[in-house]
Amino acid sequence: RKEVEQDPGPFNVPEGATVAFNCTYSNSASQSFFWYRQDCRKEPKLLMSVYSSGNEDGRFTAQLNRASQYISLLIRDSKLSDSATYLCVVTSDSNYQLIWGAGTKLIIKP
Amino acid sequence: ETGVTQTPRHLVMGMTNKKSLKCEQHLGHNAMYWYKQSAKKPLELMFVYSLEERVENNSVPSRFSPECPNSSHLFLHLHTLQPEDSALYLCASSQEPGPAGEQFFGPGTRLTVL
Prior knowledge:
The structure holds two protein chains of two kinds.
Chain A: E1 4-6, E2 11-14, E3 19-25, E4 33-38, E5 44-50, E6 55-57, E7 60-65, E8 70-75, E9 84-91, E10 98-100, E11 104-109
Parallel strand pairs in A: 2-11
Antiparallel strand pairs in A: 1-3, 3-8, 4-5, 4-9, 6-7, 7-8, 9-10, 9-11
Chain B: E1 4-7, E2 10-13, E3 18-25, E4 31-37, E5 44-50, E6 53-57, E7 64-70, E8 73-79, E9 87-94, E10 104-105, E11 109-113
Parallel strand pairs in B: 2-11
Antiparallel strand pairs in B: 1-3, 3-8, 4-5, 4-9, 5-6, 7-8, 9-10, 9-11
């Protein structure tokens, strides 16, 4: 089983729609969780951290379900500029290491 | 220059060549990282440096040799690479070493080994 699993997609979504995707992780001891965004041929950038109580940043909502070991990302009123690959990231047992998912590709269509 | 810069952006090398990748961070961070990103695969952490000291080495083959002369610069020396080493090599930095803080990435070096 992969340490962090994501549906690779692509998710093809019309502009203005709501889209959600999940990420499952295997290490029940993971303490910190993040969503990074990576545009085509660019570097990853932090989108948002994921807190236990769930958190929202504008059109983006992240949730954590520790019991089922998954995190989710919801994007409302999607924009063309939201097209990117979304990387799920969790902490490992190591003091220095993040465990990265392979990403979910999102394509917003006009 | 701002953020994290990497040179060269593209590199093509033969299996017998020796080359180096350079990374520089202008953020005053204390930790720097090398990652490998292959197509449709997760980022793989290669090395972590904290205040110029290597603190993590993830079973990386010896044909990859990192060097951190100071907290702003990080190099990855390459020699006798294999075609399967072709990938995007990303450098990142964070305020402190450790997984909880945001990591800032450079644009990467796209490496092709012939």
